[in-house]
User: Fold these one by one.
Assistant:
Number 1:
Amino acid sequence: MTHGPIDPRHRANMNMLASAIDETLNGKVKPKRLGFVMLVAEFGQIDNGRVNYISNGTRADMITMMKEFIARAEGRYAEGGTA
């Protein structure tokens, strides 16, 4: 069993991609203006499988962002409301 947000088989590629995305979105600006989340899973293994996670923000902020996205995608989000 693996632990942590990224399976060791995907760690190097995900870190490289995350660095490139963050550099593209934010450059060297501090504090960062744009946040992102990357989820990587093997097709056929998403249900009851491993979903690998990486982002450039705090875990709490990114969870809030993902909840809002899911609520919007499912049609449950009302402007000014919460997910």
Note: The chain is about 35% helix and 10% strand.
Number 2:
Amino acid sequence: MGVLSAKHAIDVAVEAARWAPSIHNTQPWTFSVSEQEIRLKADPDRKLRAADTSGRELLISCGAALFTLRTAMRCEGFEPVVRILPDPDRPSLLATLHPGAEVRPDESTRSLGCQIEHRRTHRAGFADVPVPETLVERLVRAAMEEGARLTPIRSPEAVRVVAALTQAAQAVQAQDQRFSLELIRWSQPPGSPRRDGVPAQGYPRRRVPTDPDFPQRDYAWRHDWGSQADQRAATAVGIVVVLTTPGDSRQEWINTGQALQHVLLRAAAYGVSAAFHTQALEMALLREFLRHELCSDQYPQMIMRLGVTLDDKEMVRRSVSEITE
């Protein structure tokens, strides 16, 4: 393989990175691309000013894009060479990546790569279909490979605690106009031509609670938007998991994003989707409570439910030209 093949791998990787998950589908990243290197940068204009004052969720989103770049490049036959936070004087430059040694992608890597454009975020209950324990163990190992810990919440009492904290945070945020206006900024009306934010078909118009209830964001706030799909048969909670890190640095936020995408792609390969619940983690007191009481003093970075759904919603993403410079 030569220079042209390496350049092709770079182009394919950037195309793939468009499909990484991000908070409210804000897609808070830009890429500087040359024939030798990709530079991943944070886009501060897409930061959530009310919900994400520290930029933690922005960096988690960008970390998911970084793992997608790495996976796509491996699928193209190159081992990616990555530097995270390479320049302290340029805090928005999160990582650089270039093709290294030629490699033959193994079956596991190809499996992840196949899911990049097919993975979906779910925003409702799951079908009453169990997630295999062997898969949960694989997801735990996947997170560990990226420097994070994925912990399934096994105790019904602990699941109710996490649900209650999510309910409390959602209720508080719903009374705060800053949160509501920020949310509606990233909620698309039906027929919207936008290629970012959450499309109207991506969330239910009328929410059907799970038991215990894990409320979703109110993307239909004061609007009659959302999917009219019948949700009566999809009320199972699924498996509640928490993604944590030993510390709470920018490096660990990026690591969290890489672990998150690794877990999501691995789960998607087995027909399992994720529903995200970050409301409680956006409130400092609730996040600290979770850290001390349920997370063994590890820092909670993401709360998810994992389960099976038959939905196949459309995803929207900006074009490569819109995210490159």
Note: The chain is about 35% helix and 15% strand.
